[in-house]
Write a structure and sequence with these properties.
The chain has about 325 residues and is an alpha/beta fold. The chain has 9 helices and 15 strands. Helix 2 runs parallel beside helix 3. The structure holds ribose-5-phosphate.
């Protein structure tokens, strides 16, 4: 069975890098846009192939999600032998439970739609919740970018630094990161007031007179990082914090907000495509974007050959 890479319009640069690392073809894809806003992708031949559809569902989340669904359906109807949805950033993962009465579980709705559209497997990187796996009837491979991020920033971490999870949900990634850079671990006790406001005052662990590295799965509005930086300073952390996150969405005025936080260095990956404010738009923020193309290429290669993913997977 031959290998084929299909890219949506969310992050074609990342998909192109993955295809070139695999020495594989990018299946031709044309996207027709109708005056009323509908889209219709049209693919080159995929019959009998092992197809990987690369489409993160970052901003604009709903457009990218619908495009992913249409691409999966097109692959299945065109006779692809196996179709894997590669969704490096999985939008709606934060809606993993009903936070109040009469609300949906967005992650479950997205999961069911992706499987129903034709995905026989899902590949994600550092999803907000590992319960995502249980929402899919098809296999889910959860990769992690933590080793990529730790390797990129290790040299910059001052001696005695403490790795901090900015909320309890980030503990899994922060613990893995701390183990890789051989640092102690702490956590911020945070709760969210609304979509753009969080409150964080208490710290679990000791950061007094220590530099800190904050590790999270994603940055959206920047509220979590802003609150964590302020709480860490109030508890005696020293210097300019290093901030590390897998997915840099930088929604709305996030970059302006983060600029006020006196962050020493910010590191994200390239899971999110170019249709959002790029790091270049914030020259005062020292943002670096580390590529996950080699991680995804390696995972796709192993899946295609039916080999184990082992150290590429999220652990703990
Ligand atoms: C939340 O639980 C996540 O791990 C992130 O901390 C959060 O989603 C980031 O969003 P924002 O930047 O809007 O605070």
């Amino acid at each position: 069975m031959s290998l084929g890479i299909v890219t949506g319009t969310a992050n074609p640069v990342l998909a192109g890098e993955i295809a070139s690392r695999l020495g594989s073809r990018l299946v031709e894809m044309q996207l027709e846009r109708f005056p009323d806003g509908e889209i219709r992708p049209r693919l080159g031949p995929v019959r009998g192939a092992d197809i990987y559809v690369i489409q993160p569902t970052g901003p604009p989340v709903n457009d990218n999600l619908v495009e992913l669904l249409l691409l999966l359906d097109a692959c299945r109807r065109a006779g692809a032998d196996r179709v894997t949805a590669v969704v490096p950033y999985f939008g709606y993962a934060r809606q993993d439970r009903r936070a109040g009465d009469r609300q949906p579980i967005g992650a479950r709705v997205a999961a069911e739609a992706i499987a129903a559209a034709g995905a026989s497997r899902l590949v994600v990187i550092d999803p907000h919740t590992s319960s995502l796996e249980a929402m899919f009837a098809v296999p889910v491979e959860m990769l992690t970018a933590v080793p990529v991020l730790a390797a990129a920033v290790r040299r910059l971490i001052p001696r005695g630094a403490v790795v901090v999870a900015p909320d309890l949900g980030a503990m899994r990634l922060a613990r893995h990161f701390a183990a890789l850079v051989e640092a102690r671990l702490a956590a911020v006790s945070k709760y969210r007031l609304d979509a753009v406001t969080v409150s964080a005052k208490d710290i679990v662990g000791d950061v007094r007179n220590r530099p800190v590295v904050i590790v999270d799965d994603m940055i959206s509005t920047g509220a979590t990082i802003e609150a964590a930086v302020s709480a860490l300073r109030a508890h005696g952390a020293t210097g300019e914090p290093i901030v590390v996150a897998t997915h840099g969405l930088f929604a709305g005025s996030a970059l302006a907000r983060l600029r006020e936080c006196a962050i020493g260095r910010m590191l994200v990956t390239d899971t999110i495509g170019p249709r959002h404010p790029a790091p270049a738009a914030a020259p005062a923020l020292p943002i670096q974007a580390e590529s996950v193309a080699h991680l995804l290429a390696e995972a796709i290669d192993r899946l295609h050959r039916s080999e184990p993913l082992e150290e590429l997977l999220l652990r703990g």
